[in-house]
Amino acid sequence: MTQHESTYRPTTRAGQWLDERLPAARLMHSSFVDYPTPRNLNYLWTFGGILSFCLGVQIVTGIVLAMHYVPSDKMAFDSIEHIRRNVNFGWLIRNVHAVGASMFFIAVYIHIARGLYYGSYKAPREVLWILGVIIYLLMMAAGFMGYTLPWGQMSFWGVTVITNLFSAIPFVGQSIVKWLWGGYAVSGVTLNRFFSLHYLLPFVIAGVVVLHIWALHVVGQNNPTGIEIKTRADTVPMTPYATMKDFVGLSVFILFFSWFVFFAPDYLGHADNYIEANPLSTPPHIVPEWYYLPFYAILRAIPSKLGGVVAMFSAILILAFVPWLDTSRVKSTKYRPVYRYFFWFFIFSVLALGYLGGKPPEGAYVYWARFFTAYYFLHFLVVMPIVGVLETPRPMPRSISEAVLGGAGGTPHGATAAPERR
Amino acid sequence: MISAGAFAAVGAAATLWPLIQQMNPDASTQALASTEIDLKPIQEGQAITVIWRGKPVFIRNRTPDEIKKAADTPLADLVDASARNDALPEKAPATDLNRTKKGKENWLVMVGICTHLGCIPKGQSLSDSKGDYGGWFCPCHGSHYDTAGRIRKGPAPRNLEVPPYEFVSDTTIKIG
Ligand code: HEM
Ligand code: FES
Q: What's the rounded Cα separation, in Å, for the pair A147 and A159?
């Protein structure tokens, strides 16, 4: 359904001339203007656009910050204060970059949850989904290295704890950690290389985003019913319909973003990061950035060093296998009366793990972290395969247009296949 | 054709190697000299932290009570049975004697880095929490070390490392 006839008609002579030599404008037009999108997309489908916006914001503000920031252990902390106090609008640019990282993760979590709810990972979108998981991993790496740069106490000790995760690898672990650090402990050498990589990764992400959108435009968008597009009546052109909806979603998101930038820029960070890094004193309570907390909770829930590290990385990598773990015949959880309860309990578990990851690892917190860690994995490894087989889905509309327009208007013009009930 | 391909592969690998190797500790980091420390000012029951190779090293002048507690612990109660003393072979058992120098059992010298994920355990200053075994306590993920710096409870897998050091005089040590 995605191989559509391009409606691009260059109107100027120059446009025509270029179109015959490099049809870039035609590619843009058929990807973002006359591209057929399902007519029933809701606001959860605006987060793809929002994520692209976030990446752009991080790149632009980041390049500006890098003009003033000094990546050395002696100067990094002071250069951030210099940016906040002396550089013209430095306070704004720095706040947008720091808050922007959090906003990026809020958006990506909603985007992933949307995919999980509507079964957007199922055939034929497996590659699209896996590219998404890769982007998420790269984002985590970029955010982690970025958080090192202000060289505060949380930066320093966060890096120490996270790089030490690799020391759990049998035999080669210690050498890998030394290689990452470029020394026998975290130092300015480490800061310098992290800055280099922090500058690089967003551009790698941008490259994978292009592949992600390419894969999307090969298989077409999913939609709230999870029924594939069957006829043109099921679709509307991307511009103006989907683009304008994206702008509404984006505007609301920018309001939310701005509220944090102007009224609570440090709310999502940690006060200890305004104390300069001190290699001789660990803060009493180390926490990573909020967006890593569920995984940090999983790490600490397992009472073994190697086990904790393996569980933490598996918790992320398991996402890549979801297309094959879910055995359900229907995509959208809307039509899955049993699975929906498990789905919401899974969301609750992740939020609970996020809360527990920020608490000290003692007493009841440890107990509950183990409970929700267990459910996290059971959800993927047991619930998804088994519920998919046992459950009887609710009756589904025959097509997207029937779902939108009601039974009567449902027979699309020129439908070739007989209407089918599932 | 095969030999051209093989040449290309070897060439690619040979180019990659310096790119990977450059990230390992450089010559100036490796060359960090050893450190000499004067132990005279450290009273019984006190501890100091010094820096060696960019890492904190704990030096504690242990009380007779602390030494006795460590020496009386049956080896079967230990999580990690190895002395982790750089001066001794890997198999040396983690007795209190194997973690100190003969005749200087009151001096415990260890790298002050938690063997779990690298935080610095509490227990050096008098007001610190010293954990359930009276030695050190790592607040990051809750590891408890005893008065010989051996891991007793929590996620850390190994005893705190004893670095190579020697007494150059009765009251001075040289680490490294
Ligand atoms: C995927 C996109 C990106 C993410 C998720 C991200 C994330 C972060 C985070 C979390 C911080 C620490 C903020 C703080 O607490 O102070 C940071 C700092 C920084 N980033 Fe980025 N960043 C991204 C892109 C970029 C790019 C493209 C550049 C440069 C070209 C850049 C340059 C910097 C600089 C210079 C700092 C230090 C200033 C500061 O800490 O505010 N970032 N980044
Ligand atoms: S780093 Fe000490 S317990 Fe984790």
A: 9
